[in-house]
Amino acid sequence: MESQPLLPAPPSEQDSEFWVRLRRRLVLLFWVSYAVMCAVAVVLVMRSYEAPPTNSWYQRRVLCSYLDLPEGNHTDLRRSIRGASLLGCGGVLLRMADMRSSARNLVTEGHKYDIRILLDFVLSEETNRSQEQTVKDAVRRWIQDGVSGFSLSGGHREALMTVVESLEEELDGVRGDERIVLLPDWLGEEAAINKSRFLRTRPVRDWKPWEANQSSEVMKTAWEVSYLTAPELQFMAVTLPGTIKLSLSQTHPPPSWLRPLLLLRHQNPALYAGWLQTLSENSTHNVLSHWGCSTLLIAINPSNQSQVFPLHLPNYTASAKLLFSTQRGHNGGKMAEDGVLLAPREAQLLRLTPQK
User: Fold this and answer.
1) Rg (CA), the chain
2) Backbone angles phi, psi at 349, to 5 degrees
3) Which is it for the CA torsion 348, 279, 89, 255, positive or negative?
4) Which pTM does this prediction carry?
5) pLDDT band for position 49 (50/70/90)?
6) 3-class DSSP state for residue 10?
7) Burial grade of 171 (CB within 10 A; 0-12, 13-18, 19 or more)
8) DSSP for residue 68
9) Which of 242, 222, 257 is closest to 289 using CA atoms?
10) Does residue 239 contact residue 269 with C-beta atoms inside 8 Å?
């Protein structure tokens, strides 16, 4: 009787090749699955992240104009460009004394300070056909010079509509959507030719909380605020989504908190491209501004007494980190869990983190 071998017989060459091919396929399947999962994760992240609009510079950066600036004085115009840059604005409205003059030097000066130039011209009530043609020729020349926008005012409805139509024709030939036109509110919606570059100017005091969720209306509006406006409304204006037109005076310096707030607006899409949620029907001074995963609280105390604003909001409990305050001594970075103490006439901008 033969004895069994102590060691099993080595596998045949065919069996070895089978297991080698199987291992290779399993390794390949693992790496392919891993690559597919990474691609799916990237797609989901990209879909969940909504990038700020890249062409709406006039929403990210505030426009400013100087009410007491001498008309056409190039030295003062250049000084206003530098002042707008130091303040943190992104564009400045200037008025040309001569419709036949070039704006190329002003545009070049603006590029040095990262400031866009918009031209503000007022039509007279006696504007006739020849003057309308002069305006058309000036608009065509200024667009070629690189002007980023125009602000129209004065005149009668027919003359303004004629200029608006010529602007539409000229701007349609310009690539991109970098140029804007500010129209007087009284002109009505007939002049807002369903184009994002035509904006109606409205005083910020006309802002209504129930209009906040109508993003299309907000984005087509340029909110006007001047240095004479109450400080709390100035703060509210700079934190509103859309376009802000800030009127300044060379003889009345802006508040010290305005510049850092303008710079902060540029860095937070929730302020210039988000949507608002009012927290009280009786007050326009406490709103949430949302953009993606970011939620900012805009809290303003317009009274002459200190107030505590609770952070236990309806269906929303959060802790808050102070980003900015108009009150000296209230530095950014402070955390609050239950409520925020607001000094008289103080405004705060806070980033909220939901609590589970």
Assistant:
1) 29
2) -120, 120
3) negative
4) 0.74
5) very low
6) coil
7) buried
8) T
9) 242
10) no
Nearest-angstrom CA–CA distance, 331 and 198: 39
Domains with residue ranges and CATH for the chain = 57-267 (3.20.20.80), 278-354 (2.60.40.1180)
**For every residue of 19-76, which 3-state class applies, written as one string?**
HHHHHHHHHHHHHHHHHHHHHHHHHHHHHHCCCCCCCCHHHHCCEEEECCCCCCCHHH
Of residues 152 and 9, more confidence is placed in: 152
Record the tokens describing residue 183, joined without a space.
Answer: 């129209």
Phi, psi of 190 (to 5 degrees): -65, -25
Question: Whats the size of the chain, residue-wise?
Answer: 356
- Give the pLDDT confidence score for residue 112 in this predicted structure: 92
Largest CA distance in the chain: 129
Q: Is 257 left (phi over 0), alpha (psi -120 to 50) or beta?
A: alpha
For tokens 């609770």, name the residue.
310
Q: pLDDT tens, 322-333?
A: 888 888 777 767
Show the tokens assigned to 42: 């990237």
Please give the pLDDT value at position 8. Answer: 59
Tell me the pLDDT tens digit for each residue of 334-343.
Answer: 787 778 888 8
pLDDT tens track for 63-76: 998 876 666 566 77
CA–CA separation, 131 and 294 (whole Å)? 50
